[in-house]
Design brief:
The structure is a homotrimer of 385-residue chains.
Chain A (H helix, E strand, L loop, with lengths): L4 H6 L16 H4 L1 H12 L4 E5 L8 E7 L2 E7 L5 E5 L14 E3 L4 E3 L6 E3 L4 E3 L18 E7 L2 E5 L7 H4 L16 E10 L3 H8 L5 H4 L1 H6 L5 E5 L4 E7 L28 E7 L3 E5 L4 E10 L2 E10 L1 H4 L2 H31 L15 H14 L6
Antiparallel strand pairs in A: 1-10, 2-3, 2-5, 3-4, 4-9, 6-7, 7-8, 9-10, 11-17, 12-13, 13-14, 14-15, 15-16, 16-17
Helix pairs in contact in A: 5-10
């Protein structure tokens, strides 16, 4: 099968995917300048998945989300609304919270340095002795705010002053995966990883199974690599699914389901593992029997923190025998993840070479190519090769 | 009380302190370029406190003082004079001393590489075989010299080729604190710290007590934070004092004196703790019963080494019972220092945020503002906000 | 003795060595920009010693050679030829080998990511599914090649696309040291070091004995420092010899031979220790009774990896008693090396000083000066001091 522009279009492609698909030039993985540009134009401008709503159930509960040099407090206020604030006191720039999560018990956010106090919604409540100061208006000194978007129990943030509407940006996701009743699910387990590679490499890796036969023999057995189908090929939400060969199968050490089907999942979805990137930092994989997601945090041009979470229905989590069985899914994905991280890190190393200018994607790598195009579009760059 | 330009002038202010006092832009704490400019225009041009005279009592005794990329040997010569030399052999640039301190026993400074030998005063004494070389004049190859200034038992150095006169630069200090007879005092204890923050943050922190109620409950009990008075507000020497509430009190765990009054200290000084910055690297605190000083060494844009010393009269140091009691002052300041370092480091983190442009000092923070002005003046920068 | 241009010429000097020999400006040891220029114009363009032929005896045997950001696979193919390939898959830029050495057992080089397979000579053998792709020609996707040069059992590589001919560049070496029958010798021992200094400092250190009396009292006893003679003074191969005072002496703890003379070594060579730099990364020292060489790998502007090897004839290595005696040479050189590394690292530290502009070589340092000239020539720089 030769891939042509026409064939891609049949699958609802937004991009004009040519037969010749070069990879990004090596500088996109090595250059501190391009990385700084990505921070500005991608991480500080696009919608980022911050946490699950369940992580901040009560008023005052917060998580702190690092975004490069920025740090964002995501906090539930007294009305039950979720807010996002830059974690910086307006007085002299002190970082207010150093804990990764917690609760503002007193219902106020207090800077530890000079005790300026802010409401949970960010307004400056009290600044000792500043009332004596001429021209000082508390209304001008609230915490800088970030934007919040909610979908499927996920909390997204956007650091831009005037971001693209959440509903427009994530449109392909809204209405999707209704059968999983995502908001009702809870975090059953979390695996934490640090990878020595650029953030784009993990997205590319997630979005093709060309590497599966060699890198993931077990995965390739449960979901043969030629069975990948894509239905979103462009924009923020990109992905598709792979087909399980085994009846009531799933991604576990023995290939059998790890848990009952999630909520209303039925029909074809019982035989599918979905893989969606929500550009730039969420990788979402609804399985028949659980939901897996990766939250990517870029910590430098060649460094990622990745927290891989497993979602289950609380009824399953309450059942000790079922949770014991569920370990097989955790074990499978931990094994598979580590196989991926190894090649991702080798790709980062290889791309140091000045002799390597650009590579060439093959027919099964149209989604990584689409991701690269999204990167270029976000940066406003043209390809020169 | 509203602070106005006029009020400040009553206290002998040199600077034109406006009602609106913005903090330095975040770049002054994060930018490698500005830091390099500070090295050149501040650390390599201003008078730096290097050590106490007592640390090099005999001919040949030396300490090595790091100043960013530079390393300075401070050494007492055979005439008893103190000299400062760049720690670099003129032959091929080898660092001569790697020890932090010691004694040149042979009365000469010998480079370990090719054995070029220098007099303690820096003159090249012998360079094997170089006498055979045409046009080689030993007089041209002495160690590069730095300048020395002495006050109160402190040894200051200046790396500039043609520095401002020591007596002019430190004029407000000369004649001050005579009652403590500083040259007679000796180092009783030293606390060593490393802080992950910019050097200016520790100076600012030292020069205001707006943070004391929240950060230092014990300190704020012995010296209430509203009791700060400044008498030097501008230039190299900036500071004032706080008033002890307790009769014969001091900064100790129980608020009572740690030792007898120092030498001739009497009257108001028995109830005062003085806090002076000697820009850019000495923080000097004469207490009624001891003298505390911090020697700051900037090791990078976001890293400081700080050695905190306690000075006492030798008679007190000879008395074991008194030294046991004196532990209470050491314990108090170690506790207080660590409280400060925590908020200093949080300020450094917060200032990474690109969203935070500049903050605003309050009425109790006029001295930090004056310090910032001194920084700008030294750099030759204008405020743009 | 005054050194003059004329005298130097008598010893076959290519360079015009003046009486006044300044050292390189400090920037050549500190600047990341100059270091990047050195990578491009020296490490990626000159002939580098990679390994000994004995390290890859069989088809498929390989070593991986890091050269700054580049990584080169040196591998013996099925015809017995030695090949050098950039360690980068042409598909997406993955580093293929992470092991330092090993054997491609299957006789093919397989990328671990998407299983593209290359012949040992670098040609692309198979790329799964790429045959389906229009305009994809396997001939265009072989591994990028580096050049190979062989001399004396040493394997050299050159990363340039069109390098200077190996035989021209190393001409002064070819025909030299025939009596040692270098190709027949084998690695008897290896000492590994990491040094915190610029790569040029270790070459300079190796090429003068002005430092020997102070730094190496034992070495200076066996080979008095005034007994150095140079016969190649300029270009890629620079060096000479020192004279052993003791009959049947060598560089060992007791100054006596560590082994029988190597192969056909006789006459004057029984009393000489040769020291040659093969610019920029091989230091070669034929002794009467063994051969010592250092392979230098620059890992950054102020960091070197140095592997110091001892070569012996296999007959000596098969004799346990002789190998026990040989420990004395290993012990001697490990001691001597560490003495050198210490002063090399102190020179790197001293050269941080901005006050030190340039130094001045003495009459025994004409070879380091010639090395510096070779650096400047390679960079295309003119001296400004």
């Amino acid at each position: 099968m030769k891939h042509t522009k026409g064939q891609f279009k049949k699958r609802g492609v937004d991009y004009d995917v040519p037969t010749y698909m070069p990879t990004l030039p090596r500088e996109y993985y090595q250059s501190e300048d391009i990385y700084a540009e990505e921070a500005e134009k991608i991480f500080w401008r696009r919608w980022l998945m911050a946490c699950r709503e369940e992580e901040i159930p009560q008023a005052g509960d917060f998580v702190v989300v690092p975004v490069g040099d920025e740090s964002i407090i995501v906090v539930r206020d007294k009305t039950g609304e979720i807010n996002a604030h830059f974690n910086v006191c307006r007085h002299r720039g002190t970082r207010i919270c150093v804990a990764e999560s917690g609760c503002f018990d007193a219902g106020v956010i207090t800077c530890p340095y000079h005790a300026w106090r802010y409401e949970l919604d960010g307004r400056l409540k009290a600044a000792p002795m500043m009332t004596e100061v001429e021209d000082f208006d508390k209304a001008d000194f609230g915490l800088h705010g970030a934007h919040i978007g909610l979908w499927g129990g996920f909390v997204f943030i956007n650091l831009a002053e005037d971001p693209v509407a959440f509903e427009d940006e994530l449109a392909p996701l809204i209405g999707k995966f209704e059968d999983w009743r995502l908001p009702e699910l809870r975090i059953a387990h979390k695996l934490e990883y640090t990878l020595e590679c650029n953030w784009k490499i993990i997205l590319q890796n997630y979005q093709e199974c060309y590497h599966c036969p060699g890198v993931h023999p077990l995965l390739a057995k449960w979901t043969p690599f030629r069975g990948a189908e894509h239905d979103c090929l462009g924009g923020t939400v990109i992905g598709g699914y792979m087909t399980l060969t085994e009846e009531r199968g799933s991604m576990t050490m023995d290939g059998k389901a790890a848990a009952p089907p999630v909520c209303d999942v039925s029909g074809d979805d019982l035989q599918r593992v979905h893989y969606y990137s929500v550009f730039p930092n969420l990788l979402l994989s609804p399985h028949p029997d659980f939901v897996l997601y990766h939250r990517i945090r870029s910590e430098g041009v060649d460094r990622i923190r990745n927290d891989c979470h497993f979602l289950l229905h609380p009824d399953v989590m309450a059942d000790a025998a079922r949770m014991e069985r569920f370990q097989s899914a955790i074990e499978f994905w931990d094994l598979t993840n580590r196989q991926d991280w190894k090649v991702c890190e080798q790709m980062q190393l290889g791309l140091k070479s000045h002799r390597f200018k650009t590579g060439r994607y093959g027919p099964m790598e149209d989604v990584p190519y689409a991701l690269d195009q999204e990167v270029l579009r976000a940066l406003g760059h043209e390809r020169t090769t």
